[in-house]
Amino acid sequence: MTTLTDITNLDDIKLLVDTFYSTVQKDTFIGPIFNEKIGNGWPEHLEKMYHFWQTILLEVHSYSGSPFPPHKQLPVAKEHFERWMEIFTETTDNLFLGPVADEAKFRAKNMAEMFNYKIEYFRNAAKQNPHQ
């Protein structure tokens, strides 16, 4: 049996991101949304995610940008974020063990909750002000 270790370097980040998104792409609930949005851009998306998680977890500042805007118009609801989080947690727990892995799950949960809240906020604002 393999002993799990913590996330410590870019190779660990790549393993987490690649494994996670491989599962997402095949998921019958959220996979179609990701595949429709990303299309043939998976290599670029994965590269961006490596830098994002490397910046968040390893304090290597390789990501710049704002992660929310590309998600603003996605046809998603709370259930989609819950499924995303379920896959992320399961992937992380299957691959890693330690404080950085825990931090990854904590950050992912906060991000999912914030994105869901913001998407709902913008949808509600658009309904109240349809001409803006």
Automatic annotation (TrEMBL):
It comes from the Bacteria. InterPro entries: Globin-like_sf (IPR009050), Globin/Proto (IPR012292). GO terms for molecular function: heme binding; oxygen binding. This is Hemoglobin. It comes from Flavobacterium weaverense.
